[in-house]
Amino acid sequence: MKRAVVCVTVALLFNALVSTAFAGGNANFVLGGRSLDDEQAWAPFESQHVLGVTVDFSLQGSPVQFEAGMQRSRKTESRFGPHFTGGIDEISFGVNKTWDLRGRRMHPFAGGGAEELRVVVHGAGNTTADTSPGLYAHGGIFWRIGRRFNIGFDGRTVAWTKVHFGGFSFNANYHQLDLLLGWGWPSGR
């Protein structure tokens, strides 16, 4: 996860330092809920709270934007006695298309790409974890409030994952819906 934080931080700094070479971009935070597809394997952690960030940017003349992001979801349960926490940490890289509707501050978007996720369950002094590659797709809409502030909604799905715990294999595929808050450049678009 530290590597993911470093990657996103470098992407943000790179974006800030050379923003004149970019046609535009956004740094958006998401806060919401995630529902894992394999509810039986994930019980009681099948619904989790999620927090994440995605940075996207386009180079001059590019028809799409490139994006990098990281997300983290968790749920803690204590119905088995001690507290147990299950969750997913992930980093993703892909492309998206954000449309600028002329005369409006509304921006629909859609994107997708590859990701690496780490599934972790810990409690009672033990931690079990495994990693898996996967593919993601997301889309939504945001409005530019003022000159730079973004507010909107983002829906996301992840597929083609496989993790192994104690001799069992199951997926970490999920669907989520988030509130999106962030900022964009150039200002006023």
Structural commentary:
The chain has 189 residues and is mostly beta strands. The protein has one domain (2-185): Porin. Helix content is 11%, strand content 65%. The protein has helices at residues 2-17, 39-42, and strands spanning 22-36, 47-59, 65-77, 84-98, 106-123, 126-145, 149-159, 163-165, 168-170, 174-185. The chain starts with a helix and ends with a strand.
What are its keywords?
189 residues; mainly beta; Porin; 8-stranded antiparallel beta barrel; two-stranded antiparallel ribbon; 2 helices
CATH class equals: Mainly Beta
C-alpha Rg, in Å? Answer: 18 Å
Work out the strand percent.
over 45%
CATH topology: Porin
Average pLDDT number: 86
Which CATH architecture is right? Beta Barrel
Which class best fits the helix and strand makeup?
mainly beta
- Tell me the helix content: 10-25%
| Main pleated sheet | 8 strands, antiparallel, barrel
User: Could you give the order of the helices and strands?
Assistant: HEHEEEEEEEEE
List the strand order in the largest sheet: 1-2-3-4-5-6-7-10
Tell me the distance between the termini: 33 Å
Stretches with pLDDT under 50, minimum 5 residues: none
Total helices: the number is 2
Overall form: elongated
Q: What's the structural domain tally?
A: 1
Number of beta strands: 10
Oligomer kind: single chain
